[in-house]
């Protein structure tokens, strides 16, 4: 098992100002970091890659699509723009040395029609991700698609939907990234959902129900850890936690003592259950 820390805990400004944070992440005992890609200029990431390499930290990457990048838009120009945007994020992932680009980018975050996804929207998503996956394959990068809860996304908002979506894309470079925060909202049983997804899962984010320290809330951690063992998962386990430093998360109250405390306690909790 390899352990990672998602840098969104420190907000969406991912640059050289985080170098001391990377040093602390390494000192605490993490094997790598999840790097959110908001800046899709590959040149932005060269110094960041150098710092990661100097510390011996591995890296996987994440990205999202907002209202201006919507892969299931009825506007063909918007869909083409989104595909190009995701290819640029893949170029940045290549610079960072990431083998995965993960996130809910099969559709736009926070964009709703007031209705369930149509068959046409579903197919636009399938077609777009297939093209992005072909490009990812040429870079030896795997896509890790994520479902979000119903308040943030409507194309896929539960395990069954993301499993169906990935199966219909039917591409060797398309897998699932599983996040316990959204599963805790949407699933009857998180462990059963993880077992159903099985080897489609290529990355796991462990996130508490309130996005604070894993193990301090009400997620069914016993069920989560058992399912990880049941599917014989032995890849990346990452902590994803948020704070007021990420305004889009709408967290305005203090939920942990410090980022360092959250990392130390969270990693110790996970290792005590997974070894």
TrEMBL record:
Q: Mind telling me which Gene3D superfamilies this protein's record contains?
A: Divalent-metal-dependent TIM barrel enzymes
Where the record annotates domain Xylose isomerase-like TIM barrel, the positions are 22-272
GO MF terms here are: isomerase activity
The record's section on Pfam families has: AP_endonuc_2
> Which UniProt keywords are given for this protein, alphabetically ordered?
Isomerase
Under the heading InterPro entries, the entry gives: IolE/XylAMocC-like (IPR050312), Xyl_isomerase-like_sf (IPR036237), Xyl_isomerase-like_TIM-brl (IPR013022)
The keyword Isomerase is annotated on this UniProt entry: yes
- SUPFAM superfamilies in alphabetical order: Xylose isomerase-like (SSF51658)
> What PANTHER family does the record point to?
HYDROXYPYRUVATE ISOMERASE
Q: What is this protein called?
A: Xylose isomerase domain protein TIM barrel
């Amino acid at each position: 098992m390899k352990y990672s820390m998602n840098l969104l805990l420190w907000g969406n400004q991912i640059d050289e100002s985080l170098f001391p944070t990377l040093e602390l992440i390494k000192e605490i005992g993490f094997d790598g970091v999840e790097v959110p890609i908001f800046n899709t200029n590959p040149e932005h990431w060269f110094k960041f890659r150098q710092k990661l390499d100097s510390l011996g930290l591995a890296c996987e990457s994440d990205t999202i699509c907002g209202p201006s990048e919507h892969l299931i838009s009825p506007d063909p120009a918007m869909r083409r723009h989104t595909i190009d945007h995701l290819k640029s994020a893949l170029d940045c992932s290549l610079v960072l040395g990431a083998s995965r680009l993960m996130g809910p980018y099969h559709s736009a975050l926070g964009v709703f029609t007031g209705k369930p996804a149509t068959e046409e929207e579903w197919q636009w998503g399938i077609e777009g991700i297939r093209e992005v996956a072909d490009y990812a394959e040429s870079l030896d990068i795997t896509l890790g698609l994520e479902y979000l809860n119903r308040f943030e996304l409507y194309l896929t908002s539960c395990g069954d939907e993301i499993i169906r979506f990935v199966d219909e894309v039917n591409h060797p470079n398309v897998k699932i990234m599983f996040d316990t925060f959204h599963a805790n909202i949407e699933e009857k049983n998180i462990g059963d959902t993880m077992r159903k997804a099985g080897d489609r899962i290529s990355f796991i984010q462990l996130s508490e129900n309130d996005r604070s320290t894993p193990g301090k809330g009400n997620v069914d951690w016993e069920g989560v850890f058992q399912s990880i063992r049941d599917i014989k998962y032995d890849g990346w386990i990452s902590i994803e936690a948020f704070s007021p430093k990420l305004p889009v998360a709408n967290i305005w109250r203090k939920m942990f003592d410090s980022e360092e405390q959250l990392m130390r306690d969270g990693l110790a909790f996970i290792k005590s259950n997974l070894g």
